[in-house]
Write a structure and sequence with these properties.
With 211 residues, this protein is α/β, with parallel strands linked by helices. 34% of the residues lie in helices and 27% in strands. It is built from four helices and ten strands, in the order αααββαββββββββ.
Length: 211
């Protein structure tokens, strides 16, 4: 018995197991936080698409050339849906990628605020917290994103296409902080971007013919 009590075999293995417990917890928490970050990026993409699409519908209606009978609110929610974010039971938009039913504990919300010259899109997803719940940090986490698109009237465009599209190819860098780029072409391809990366710093970019 005395020799058994003095035996140190396996003590290092026991200490290693004890040390691995918090290490595994930290790694798992990092993985969970990583999933939150990915969801946040997807939410921001949906909010951006919703705001831009909604404000293009406002431009279309204000300029008097629009044949689209749907509202700016509808178009904004449609493009949020195409980026996998919808309100519950509101998933039937054209091109929607929203699931008819979400996994247990997950819910989404899309709220569009339509003003006279701007659209604000608020997109969020609430989902359960797993490891962080065990650690007592939170039972659920709400991940949200907001985007606002605003109409600005061009009085001195640097580039005005009377017909045809304004076409950006390659890796262009457009810098026009005091004037804008616009097109009078009512076609859906009034602006074409074929670039790996486009850097633009303009006061306004107003495609006329989106719808």
């Amino acid at each position: 018995m005395n020799s058994f009590l003095r035996c140190r075999r396996g003590s290092i293995a026991f200490a290693t197991v004890i040390a691995l417990v918090p290490l595994i917890g930290v790694v798992a928490l990092g993985a969970e936080a990583g999933s939150w970050y990915v969801t946040r990026q997807h939410a921001q993409n949906a909010a951006d698409a919703a705001a831009i699409s909604g404000v293009w519908r406002l431009i279309c209606g204000q300029r008097g050339f629009c044949t689209d009978t749907n509202s700016a609110d509808y178009r904004a929610k449609q493009f949020a849906a195409q980026n996998t974010f919808c309100n519950a039971g509101d998933t039937s938009y054209p091109g929607s990628r929203c699931a008819a039913t979400l996994p247990t504990g997950i819910s989404q919300a899309v709220r569009i605020v339509v003003n006279a010259n701007s659209i604000q899109a608020n997109v969020s997803q609430q989902q359960p917290a797993y490891l962080s719940k065990v650690l007592g940090l939170s039972n659920a986490v709400t991940i949200g994103a907001t985007a606002t698109a605003q109409i600005q009237v061009l009085t001195n465009p640097c580039v005005l296409a009377l017909t045809g599209s304004v076409d950006f190819q390659g890796s262009p860098s457009v810098s026009s902080p005091n004037c804008g780029v616009t097109s009078n072409d009512p076609a859906s391809d009034a602006f074409i971007f074929k670039a790996a990366a486009v850097s633009a710093s303009t006061r306004h970019c107003s495609p006329r013919g989106l719808f």
